[in-house]
Each structure stands twice: as structure tokens, then as C-alpha cells.
Amino acid sequence: MLYDWIKALHVISVIAWMAGMFYLPRLYVYHVDAAKGSVQSETFKVMERRLLRAIIDPAMSASWIFGLTLAWLGDHWLQPWFMAKFTLVLAMSGLHGFYARWRRQFAEDANTHSAKFYRVMNEVPTLLMVGIVILVIVKPF
User: Which of 10, 55, 63, 72 is most buried, by CB atoms within 10 Å?
Assistant: First the structure.
């Protein structure tokens, strides 16, 4: 019973994390076109900070806590599908770190990337998520 509750909390936190990971780079796409110091730019800064700090960061932390708990309770550590999934989750966490760094650059009016760059980066979490879900559900190896 405890395992099922932890799994439910893990899925909820992953959904929240992914929602933020899909939305934040989309905000960056629009923020690039806003003039520095404009009301629009300042609004984007607030939205980006709140999204990252209030949703994405806590959801990622919860995903890790519940996910590692499930791995421990289910003794999945050495299973090949789990090691591959773990690698993709590490990559997602690294991407999260880049998103946070880019948010700080926007906050300092120091963005150096184009809207096209952020459009491409908006697709990366989708690819990682697809791989993670396939590994967890199908367990191909």
C-alpha cells in the first residue's frame, strides 16, 4: 500500500515538473523579443522566477525523493532499464539547471540566445520524457 502511495506522489510530482519544463523555455522564446527594461520584459522575469521557484524546483525535488524511494523499495538499482532511466533523469536534471541559469541571465538582462535556440531547447524535455516513460513502462531490457 505504501509503495502505491509513493508511486502516485512520484507521478504527480513528475507531471508538475514536466509541465514546468515544457512551459519555461516557451516563456524564454517570447521574452527574447521583449525590449530590455520594458513592462513586458519585467513581467516575463516575474513569471519565469515564480514558475521555476514555486513549481519546477519543488516538483523536481519531490520527483527525485519519491523516485529514489521507489527504486529502493522495489530494489530496481541494478536493473538495466532503471540504469538507463536514471541516466535520462540525470540529463533532465541537468537541463533543469540550464533553464535556471538562463532564467538568471534574463533576470540580469544578459540573455545571449535566440528565440530559435529556446524553441529547440523546448523540445529536449519531450524527448527525454518519451525515453523515460518507455523505459519505465516497457522495460525493454
Answer: 63
Mean pLDDT in the chain?
97
pLDDT for position 137: 97
| Domain limits, the chain | 2-137
58: left (phi over 0), alpha (psi -120 to 50) or beta: alpha
pLDDT in tens, 129-141: 999 999 999 999 9
Average pLDDT over residues 60-75: 97
**Are the C-beta atoms of residues 12 and 91 closer than 8 Å to each other?**
no
Q: Judging by beta carbons within 10 Å of its beta carbon (0-12, 13-18, 19+), is residue 135 exposed, middle or buried? A: buried
CA dihedral 54, 59, 65, 71 (to 10 degrees): 180
Q: Rounded CA gap, 114 and 116, in Å?
A: 5
SS3 of 49-105: HHHHHHHHHHHHHHHHHHHHHHHHHHCCCCCHHHHHHHHHHHHHHHHHHHHHHHHHH
